[in-house]
Amino acid sequence: MERSQDSAAQPKSQGRRVADSRAVEVASRVGLCARGVIYVLVGILAVRIGLGRDSGQEADRSGAVGTLGEQPFGRALLWALVVGLAAMALWRLAEAAFGQTVEGGDKWSRRLGSLGMAVFYTVICIGVVQTALVGGSAGARPGDETSKEYTARVLDWPGGRVIVGVFGVVLIVVGVVILVRSLMRKFEKDLRTDAMRPATRRVVAFLGVVGGAACGVVAAGAGLSVLLAAVRYDPSQAKGLDETLRSFAATPAGPALLIAAAVGLLLFGLYSFCEARWRKAAGHETPAEQPAGSAGSGTRPGAS
């Protein structure tokens, strides 16, 4: 009986070792750096648009990829980004399969979120590979055009209107969750705040709150456009990241709201680098081993 129990537990222990391995940790940090590069570039492009200095590049991932491709050694930079995005996808896939290494990482909601992120970054990685194979920015396809095309295809499916509507609602919910978690500083649970100086911790908290809130607002805005596309049965209503950002300039706040959102995305890119530096690894999730009453115990859940 004991032998059968041991054999049943063995696959889980092996999976846990994979998830806690040094390779997965490195992949997570490389992937976060790749995410940081994309969001910093998107933020810069969006700020330029808000200031009336539109260079013709879209303020989305395709614009960021195109910007990299136009730099000296652009193709090498694109392949480096491919490596980072592939690492991000593999890390998220490992989390989906074996659970995250942080508090509550085995919850089904977290695993499902990690699976969604794995698919998301895999799609982006494939797009960057296509661009890198073409060379330069020639293969970077506008994100807004892609969003409308995919929405039109799905709307033509049986029940496509419902599928698009559900996707829009999910995107809105995700955006709201990101916004709330950022404002509540939930992201600090995943960071080794005890390894930061007080001033560094304040800076990282600022980047996480403002940057995460901006991502949440933009994601909810994009989700609202997808929902409208389903309600009105009009794929032209679906907006990518670039068109969502530009739509902020059409509000009463004008270009100021666009610039604020753009700066927020840029700050989220900077936060991604900080997360790559201080994100908890499996070996750091050991608060019970710390001396009682030790100072700066940032590994405790809910530390702030």
Automatic annotation (TrEMBL):
Keywords: Membrane, Transmembrane, Transmembrane helix
Pfam families from the UniProt entry: DUF1206 (PF06724)
Transmembrane segments: 32-51, 76-94, 115-140, 160-183, 204-233, 253-274
InterPro entries associated with the record: DUF1206
Domain annotation DUF1206: ranges: 30-98, 112-184, 210-279
Residue numbers spanned by region Disordered: 284-304
Protein name as annotated: DUF1206 domain-containing protein
Species, as recorded: Streptomyces exfoliatus
